[in-house]
Amino acid sequence: PIQGDRRLLLRRLPGRLYRWSIIIPHPPVLEDNVTPASMKFAPASVAAFAALASTGTDAFAPSLPGHPRSVAAAPSSSLTMSTAEASTEERKPRKKEKRLQYMKAPDFHRRGFKEVRDNVEKAMGDQFKSSLVDELKTNDYVIERDGVKVHLAKDFGFCWGVERSIALAYEAVEHFPGKTVHITNELIHNPEVNDRLHDMNVQFIEKLGENKKDFSKVGDGDVVILPAFGASFEEMSLFDSKNVDVVDTTCPWVSKVWNTVDQHQRKGLTSVIHGKYAHEETVATVSFCEDYICVKDMKEAEMVADYIVNGGDKEAFLKYFEKAVSEGFDPDTMLDKVGLANQTTMYKKETRAIGQMMQKAMMKKFGPVDAKDHYLEFDTICDATQVRAPSFANMGLFVWDCCYICGQIV
To answer: Distance (Å, rounded) from C-alpha 247 to C-alpha 96?
Structure first.
């Protein structure tokens, strides 16, 4: 660094010539399709996204108009180059680099459509605002009717990422009135929102089982919405090769996990994903991994940690995790160096406990000094999930006759 955000970049020209350039990387920005001022964000969600944006992750840099698909995303700058990198041979681009390349295409949309924004904001207000909830908020989240007292959790409802996703999807439908609009999955786990998309004549891609889908109905010139959970690398590659408009509503916290597993690849680590292997978000995340294993809870994490330290029955281990590991996974060689990431909606306390378990396993196997070379962890936990769970738990201070939980079990 020479000052502020300016950095030196060694750029390779044809042949063996090099030159020094000064670049100012694009800082992460909030998409301008939905601003915090115009939406009902939870304070924790706004703070969490602000912290996320400050990391300087390339994946959140604004899309540049007019960039053809053939222009590759610029690699991250560095003052050191390995001999392999400096050679004239072409390095195979990482999945993250390809994803950034797809995102620069002129028919890849992440910022929404301003000309329909006011209409969409009004429609969302009509659909989701409630005079009863407003009354609860003004009365310390408690009301009483006919002798029945009702308490509402103080943190509830859509997080910022979900509101953004809904707004982008609704805007896409209005912006492309004459086109067939598809969506690769449920937008979010909310029947009311998905039913509304059905009413808007959005076509939900048919699932064939085993995480396969039928994309044959996506025609030339159609529009494809990627849901809040994201889409797999293979799906993004498919749509990049088609003549379709892509509207990406992926939550930025999910993209942060993808950047984390990219760091794992660069450092030669196997990704340990705390999540459900069949969940839409985890399916997308593992598609950006090279070597990975998914653990859904402490029990499965203990199985992995025990194998790291003591080894075990390889055949039985692979049979148990057969749907939760990368192709060709070998626990004897691929668990020596691991990095932790997670499905963003998993509980923070459990993810951190799993991280400590992995770290202790590496300390037992390699010693406390060398353990740091065998385990890497980034914070990829979405705080919106975390504030809702304690908010609900705090309601246990009251004596209930009945409790309603509005949500979907997945």
So the answer is: 18
Token pair belonging to 390: 């304690």
Q: What pLDDT does 126 receive?
A: 92
Helix (H, G, I), strand (E, B) or coil at 6: strand
Catalytic residue among 163, 235, 281, 377: 281
Report whether 165 contacts 193 (CB < 8 A): no
281 counts as catalytic: yes
Q: Which residue has the tokens 């990627």?
A: 226
Q: Which of 329, 311, 384 lies closest to 160, judged by CA?
A: 384
Q: What are phi and psi of 277, to 5 degrees?
A: -60, -25
Give the other-Cβ count within 10 Å of 131's Cβ: 7
Q: What is the CA 15 to chain-centroid distance, rounded? A: 39
Q: Is 222 helix (H, G, I), strand (E, B) or coil?
A: coil
Distance in angstroms (rounded) separating the CA atoms of residues 95 and 112: 25
Answer whether 147's CB lies under 8 Å from 370's CB. no
- Summarised one tens digit per residue, pLDDT across range 4-13 is 443 333 333 3
Look at residue 211 in the predicted model and tell me its pLDDT: 77
Contacts of 232 (CB under 8 A, 6+ apart): 283, 284, 287
What tens digit of pLDDT does each residue of 351-364 get? 999 999 999 999 99
